[in-house]
Amino acid sequence: MARALTRRAGGPRTLLRLRRALGSRTALVALLALLLLALWWLAGIQGVTGQRLLSLVVRGVMLGGILALGAIGLTLIFGVLRIPNFAHGDLMTWGAYLVLLGLPLLPAGPPLAPFSFGAELLVLLVVAMPLVGLTGYVLDRLVFRRLRARRAPSVILAMAALGGAFLLRSLIYLGWGADFRNFYTGRPRPAIELFAGIRVRPDQLFILGLALLLIFLVYLLLERTKMGKAMRATADNADLARISGIDTESVIRWTWLIGGGLAGAGGVMFALDTQLRPEMGWWLMLPLFSSVILGTIGHAYGALIGALVIGIVWQTSTAFLNPAYGPGVAFVVLILVLLFRPQGIFGKPGGT
Amino acid sequence: MGDTTVVKSLLLALPLWFVAARALPARLPWWARAGLGAVAAWAFALAVALVVPPGQMAYLVSFAIVGSIYAVLALGLNVQWGYTGLFNIGIAAFFAVGAFTSALVTTRMPTGAAAAFSEQAFGLGAPFLAGVLAAGVAAGVLALLVGGPTLRLREDYLAIATIGIAELVRLVFQNERWLANGPQPLRGIPQPLACLVDDPVCGWLPAPLAALFDPLAPRDYPYVYLAVATLFVIVVYLVLERAIRSPWGRVLRAVREDEAAAAMAGKDVARVRLQAFVVGAVIMGLGGALYAHYMIAIDYTHFDALYGTFLVWVMLMLGGSGNNRGAILGAFALWGVWTGAAFVVDLARPLLAAISSDLPARGPYLRLLLIALLMLFILLYRPKGLVGEERFVSRDSQGRDG
């Protein structure tokens, strides 16, 4: 019966086989590799040197690190709590502005050479991360919990998240206005040569290092602690997890604290690399969701891989495309994934 | 009482006529309703035009025009979300594509000195209605492209894809100078029926009508445009009411309520969703055209997530999803709250200055805070909105319960 139905839907059997082959994990990886090669080729015929391309890839990895901080939290909240959190980008912005709020309160130390920031920024980062997590949890207590109790569908949760996003952003606008800001004004941020002529700013290396450290901590948490196990179980099958006696309430609390904390760190890192703008997080939403879907919703390592792919593709495209289109390139990747394998790299066949 | 007031009140009475005729009891014959409605509407419009001082009248008219444009957008969203349950948070994309398409179709290529400052891909100099038509088609094609790969997937994917297309459209109109003069505004979008306020009045008009419009001066043009904009709202509303009460409309709601059951009944769910998505987008495109011809000059900043998408969502939710009258009511009510809040913030300036010297300049953002809180409040405590969904089975049995 089922076979007859699929046959009717998919047409002749060879076509069905082709469809299935195109939807395989290998095909998706090949497709992404092909996309990257096409980007390099396009850059090549425009006369971009290999050295420049290589340094763009290095920068892409760094950008991917920042995106991963946002995407891992987003995918956990999406997978564990079933909330498509459209406020996630604004949580990132929130983290950056919390640090900006604290900077004048602390004595400004000398820059930790070769970096452009002083120790106070690190202190504030450590303070801001749990605060952003707490913000997310408060939003959950006030809004999402009530909607969950009503068994609201996920689109309603998405809409509430959108309201939360605009709420957060209005607070940022009220506090700081719409101007561009920097953590430190007037400090030179020279690039140093890494190897083979690849130039990066020391801050960018710090960002990458911190992103790797935080991702490693999340790995430990998910793999080695009971809470991590509970979270993965809930993401895998929420009903089964509840029946097995997992404390849903503490899973919710920890998911927000971790997801929000990572988002806060990601926002601070992004602001350190570029500037602070109230809309910066909103513009990161598209790359974040693309990373999450590419890496399968609820899959933390998938989000990491997705973020790296998006970061590299984004930076590489700037070799020959107006850099403003970066988020647009992420959108192209998203559409490719949705067309061929909507369940993402790690998704089970037939999912979604 | 000048001749101008009479013409203005006649233009104002046009939409009111429709509302009055609909509001009269249905057991009266149609000609009685039309006649009584016309009298009541004109009397009311005349009273308003006489009593309200000219400055405030101009403000009211521009308020009503923008309200009508938002009403069209909210009606489009109502087809997608209200009736079919499609979560589109990229309204701005279809709005912008409609606006720029109509602008490109109706303007002429800049020539002479202007060509050095302004670029655009093409300029056909076509009439207003051609621009409106093209706007609807362009928005519909965009909806096909976005909806095709995403509508067959889980529902939240559409939300992400629509956010993406809205950003992409905005980026294109910001960065591609050759297309529509981005990031500079595309100027000189013609106004429909502008010749009514010229001297002499449009040549094609029969003499008695020409004499009627003769007293209007160019600064009275918004009255003409208000009639155009409200006519759009009325036409879209009537078409949608018809469609929603047709078998097609019932399938939409069936898909929204229970996809599996609709599929079991032999309905092609994916196809129905795509149809609803495209129809909604076409209406949003019309709204864009209406906006472009009102603004005369448009640029990418007009189509951001706040004005292009978020406000429309709160309007529909405030009025009542799944109810076309609610969508229109919500559009006007929320636009009233939004513009009214500006006055309140202005009054509160001294208070804001007392809190912090930076705050008065940022006062307008208080409105954003207010709207965001309003949205969360509606979601939590009043999910049905002001009027709630209308329940009916078909056009022929408009019962109270379906």
Written description of the protein model:
Chain A has 352 residues and is mainly α. Chain A has one domain: ABC transporter involved in vitamin B12 uptake, BtuC (Orthogonal Bundle), CATH 1.10.3470. Helix content of chain A is 72%, strand content 1%. Chain A has 14 helices and two strands, in the order αααααααββααααααα. Chain A has helices spanning 2-10, 13-22, 25-45, 50-81, 88-102, 119-149, 154-176, 202-224, 226-236, 238-243, 248-273, 280-294, 300-317, 326-340, and strands spanning 192-193, 199-200. In chain A, strands 1-2 form a two-stranded antiparallel ribbon. Chain A is globular, with a radius of gyration of 21 Å. With 402 residues, chain B is mainly α. Chain B has two domains: 1-51, no CATH class; 55-381, ABC transporter involved in vitamin B12 uptake, BtuC (Orthogonal Bundle), CATH 1.10.3470. Helix content of chain B is 69%, strand content 0%. Chain B has helices at residues 3-23, 30-51, 54-83, 91-106, 128-150, 155-175, 177-180, 207-213, 221-244, 247-257, 259-264, 269-295, 305-319, 324-347, 349-355, 359-362, 365-381. The longest helix of chain B has 30 residues, at 54-83. Chain B is globular, with a radius of gyration of 22 Å. Chain B starts with a helix and ends in a 21-residue tail after the last helix. The mean pLDDT of chain B is 89. The interface between A and B is large, with 43 and 42 residues.
